[in-house]
Amino acid sequence: MQTPVIIIIIGLFIFWGHYLSGVFERRSIPDVLGLMLIGMLLGPVFHLVEPGSFGSFGSLFSNLVLIFILFESGTDLKISEVQSSFKESAGITTLGFLVTWATISIMCLFIFKLPFLSCLFIGSTLGGTSSAVVVGLVKKIAVRPKTATTLIMESAETDVFTLAIPLSILGLMITGNMDPSIVVAQFIASLVVALLIGIGGAFLWSFILNKTPNLKTTKFSTPAFLFILYGLTEYLNFSGPITALSFGIAIGNLQYFEPKILERIIPNQSIVLPQGEKDFFSELVFLLRTFFFVFIGISVQINRLDWLMWGAIITLTVFAARIIAVILIVARDTPLLDKAVMSIMVPKGLGAAVIATLPLQRAHPDGVIIQSVCFAVILFSTLYCVGLFFLTKTGISLPVYRLVFGRDKLTVQEEALEQRGTEI
Length: 424
Fold this sequence. Notes:
The chain is an all-alpha fold. The chain has two domains: about 5-135 and about 150-395, Na+/H+ antiporter like fold (Up-down Bundle), CATH 1.20.1530; about 395-424, no CATH class. Helix content is about 75%, strand content about 0%. About 45% of the residues are buried. It comes from Haliscomenobacter hydrossis (strain ATCC 27775 / DSM 1100 / LMG 10767 / O).
């Protein structure tokens, strides 16, 4: 394909991404689906682009997306907000992740006969929920503010699980060491060193900004410093992604990490990113995620229909397991509509997609099937979530959920929705 044509296509992709974002706002259809569809048409359907044609750039691109996603996730995670809503969100966050992790891991173990660590990696990667999809959908349905906050905080808090755990498991997969004492030692060493580099790097960067005020006016100096930290950590054979995540969390929550002895040297306010820089990062992440989901579509293995089919079945099982988690953890007097919405909010997103590419990048023998299964679950979880959201919002599925969760007293709105669903 000629260079001018590629440049034109890049421009069209950006406009397509903005258009799909608008569709999401108006129609509650996540842009992920449209981007992956375009990628599938370009790749496995019409074979205009092959994943192998990206060469080493594909690996570099995935790492860049990972760095920015982890950094933005870290800066957006406010410890004060987590503390204030911890009682409401901790239960569904922890139990939801564990149930999903166990469900997917067990199914992969029996269906694909993969090694135990590979199954744990897939399960932990797909154990969370997509913040972009959850936040967008929750705003479009009249659940209680407490329920909306719980779901939004869950999507943010599970990032810690779905990033730290699979990355630690990946290190064990690469080394192939299963000795319990060595495994625990490697896990702790990798995690602690990466955290120290990330948090220590945040202090150092704050100090540098205080000493060189001109850097505060630049927009790319912070990610440039993060690139150095990430590369250094990876070069030392520790977890670069954990460093990126901890650096972002420390940047956004310095007052919770900074020892009193450093307060005079590193003022808290200097490390707070200006709104203009946050907007720049958000736009950059938007561009990266647009191209990355197209890349996912290109990489989907539709020639392995069995993998796609099993991905669809695994996703159905995840939704069923989610209902069990909601029954166990959510108060009985919670409105039926809220329980129904909590049961369907398990779409998988960009973080899971990026993590899923890492085993293949690092030449793990199970890399292809891990990536393919994860991509399939991401696709079907979004499709199922959107479909069930429509059925719930219109009231069509409320009678079914009423059978599942028991005959609690319906709110006036739920009665109206149920009546509307019956008429439809």
